[in-house]
Amino acid sequence: MTAWTLEPLVPEFVRQFEAYVPSRPDPELMALYGVPRLFRLNNNENPLGPPAAAQEVLRRFPPPRAAVYPSGDSFYLRRRLGAALGVDPEQVLVGNGANEAIGFVIKAFCQEGDNIVTADRTFAVYEWTARFSGIDARLVPLSDLGFDDEGMLARIDARTKVLFVCNPNNPTGTFWDRERLRRFVERVDGRAVVVVDEAYAEFVEDASYPDGLALLPDHPNVVVFRTFSKMWGLAGLRVGYLVGERKVVDTVRRTCTVYSVNGLAQEAALAALGDDGHVPATRLLVREEKAYLASELSAMGLTVNAREGPYVMVELPVSDTLAYRRLMAEGVMVRTMTGFRFPGWIRVSIGRHDAMEAFVGALRRALA
Amino acid sequence: MYVTLGELRVPAKASLVPLVASFASRGAAALGLDEKDSDALGIAAEEVFSHLAACAAPGRDVVLRLDDGGWRAGLEVRFAAEPGRVDFRPFNLTFRTTPEEDPLLARTALAIASRMVDRFQLRRQDREILLTLTRERRFPKGEPPPPEPRPEGAVSARAARPHEIPLAAGLAAARHPAGQVLPAFGSPGTVSAMAAAGDLDAVVAADAAGRLAGALFFRPEGDRLVELLGPFLFQEPAVEGAARLLVDACLAALGRAGRTGVLARNPTDAMPPNALEPLGPLDLRGADGVVRRVHARFRQLDEDPGGIAHLHPRLEPFVREALRRLAFARTFRLLEGPAVPPGEGTAFATEIDRRNGQAHLKPLWLGADARATLDGLLAALSAEGLANPTAELDLGEPWHAGFAPALLDAGFEPRLVVPWAATGDVLLLQRTTEPSAR
Fold it and tell me: What ranges do the domains of chain A cover?
């Protein structure tokens, strides 16, 4: 008997795609590297955690409620978001993290032969989701570390369905200001859906930073992504959402998985929105620690890119993957950037001061 | 990369040998191989299938798949071989059929088949044996290209355009020792066909007018790695910073390719320091037939998830030190109890690359006759002019550790550890019989 072969059953575009392997849980990593504690500075999480009100929801969640299905479409959370953002709740679609929303949009608008356009060095999930769905991802090189509007416009053709703009960009921290974003959307002129991913919007203090939602009345092809994973400290609960014009959102809703956002996550997100002190406190911490890092790393002779967002990029004189392993042996976990197409760079999430000091000390020893 | 042309599923019976031979030779001809090369693949298929019918897998269903690789034709022979239910000894290259009954009829069928092709690979994958016979198309050799004019103004690195790949290969072959380039680099037709098939790619450093300052080639190495060749710089003195641009562009191109690491067996002196981490020495035969000692380098492309290394105690110090130097965290599991199970049955999968004069051994099955089997194989390889064979132990496979005593006693030395080159890290050993030019 000849062994069964799986290959003929797997589409070519899936065969060519390698699965993403997430890092192991902390206890496993600490045992592997023989370290007593681990500073995770790789995922841009909020070092302050969720707002106090959300923490209270988590503490008081009645365990029997875990047996009950949540609201299938995050009813109350959408209502609250609608009020906060000044839009109809039906214009809001909540997903299991913004990653899920990326999948919803690609599924809703793309079919075989279509393409998406985004940057080559940005959040990888736009590109990955397109590719493992059999959709071509057209990647435009960054220009001065920022999204290249002219380059993206030049890549649009009749089969382009979605443009992804990460604003501010992860990992470079650059952003398009109000005028530039509006001009871009005008020149797209409705030929494709423009996704403006504002996952890090709440960290940006620059007055020229645009609110993508302001474009909606004039440009119904714009969809804005936001998340509770970054500023709101709920990454472990996975809540993200998109906002767009009603017709667009109704179309996306057809491809979305209902009941994908759990009840605890919905309640924590609702509570988080009511905390007025959380954003300024986080911004202050990020501002101070980013300045500390920039100063220490520059003193070590390293090139640092510290713009918007709760992270900085650092160029190293050794490979980023080697530095990663050496830093892990010191109990510090950073993000290597070869996967972002920045070989030799690492991205460091802003943490509390003890974590930043630990990172600086570990990096000194790793490069010695 | 291959495109499957056709598949034949037949039981391993002697009466079907002509069908199999015809499938291979006519299929190869349809792929554009000339008569001599098509016939050679047909004979190799005949030898292998006769061997399966006679002793290795009589009566079992065998799948033969003919693949078009553009610059080569590949015949894959696959069949189920559950460990414990199959005698693996007939898969040794030196295995002779019916030697006791009639020594005059004894044949080393697999060895004969290996001589008919450019590349002979035998491996055990899960619960199957896979034999791959590869015959390359012959392309005319090219004239060395004239020196490349010096770039003017700013130089940047980018993906090579199709016409630049054979040009850059020719420039590299003209300026660098044989051990640092592929034999195919002297043949523009082969290089173009390899590139078209996705088996070779390059980044180039060039000015706005397309004048090349250098190139760095890369190609898939197994399922997880990418091999780098270069960087090659085309002017003297070289354009400043070109090598770094090439390495960065190459790594950026591979950053989301789903590969674990890059391996440079014999990088040029232009490789920027710290770009890749040193692994250790290997003695490799170049296209000119000279054996040179080279120093392999490696770079991980992703964040290492950690892993387990299964080891024989005799190899523990070497492997621990090699992984410590590279800062790879591993959980070490030492082989406990007797290394060798009772009974005969040892088998090695042999890979032969005749173009490069290289032979490589992989564990297939371990028995008490490991050393004797190995000695026989080494003698046969030496007689074929395949000196300095390499062997590998997959540290992710616990049963591989038991092969260590036989390999070490036969003169193999541990040379380097390539992280994640197979199920786990791979320890590469080499038996040096030919002096190397250092």
Answer: 9-40+277-367, 52-272
